[in-house]
Known about the structure:
Layout (H helix, E strand, L loop, with lengths): L1 H47 L4 H5 L2 E2 L4 E2 L2 H32 L4 H14 L3 H15 L6 H25 L3 H9 L4 H29 L3 H4 L21 H10 L4 H39 L1
Antiparallel strand pairs: 1-2
Helix pairs in contact: 1-11, 3-6, 3-8, 4-6, 5-6, 6-8, 7-8, 8-11, 10-11
Amino acid sequence: MENNITMPDNHRRKTLAQNAAFALFRILSGVIVAILLVILAFIIVKGARALSWEFITTPPADGMKSGGIWPAIVGTFYLMAGSALFSFPLGIMSGIYMNEYAPKGKVVGFIRMMTNNLAGIPSIVFGLFGMSLFVGFFGFGDSILAGSLTLGLLALPLVIRTTEEALKAIPDSFREGSLALGATKLQTIWHVILPMAMPNITTGLILALGRVSGETAPILFTCAAYFLPQLPQSVFDQCMALPYHLYVLATSGTDMDRQMPIAYGTALVLVIIILLANLLANALRSHFQKKLDAN
């Protein structure tokens, strides 16, 4: 009789604890979303006043007290493309090696630990390293090439971990079935494993691009120009970039009343670029997933 009374009481307590935990999670999620919406609303309200077609397509003028941000937009895309050319192939191949070829043991564990540590290093450290290695040692100078390589190093750990986790999620039965049918290991990876993992890999790649597009410290020491109205002519030229342009507008100048609206407009354009990168990630993920489901 006592057991019959105790069991409903225990069940009731567990149910109450579960409901309380879920309620706490909902509240915390709501707070996070509310903070995000407040930040976005603030940037949109402040930045929309400066946003116009002329603002986007013209270079800065009058010591950045007027004009637009076109060279900064172009420079940002150059740096994103350059970092992608460096980090994507190297990161994907490293992730494939760690998950598919490297023997499981202390070596892979050490590499994984160092990759995680590299992902946690502050971006300003990457900037100092890029300045010493690419600007100084290799002699690239303050240039798009040096900035792209530095940002590529910053994105590399994220690409490696994303690729490895995406490959790890594929069941071993697909590998074993492909090998049993006579395919080589390389053919199995290229024709079976990579297509199945591509949705998650693509998401990680685009998110890595979104991260490097907003970094200021790495380009501060390697490529960013304070005021450069003309577009760069080669990878060895300096360039303007939206994060550094925003930093300069908000922290220095002789007429802050005229510069701050431009700073808010620059921040809004940067947020829009990152938002478009995330939307592109979702679209590519859906495309590859539908293609995979069709096959």
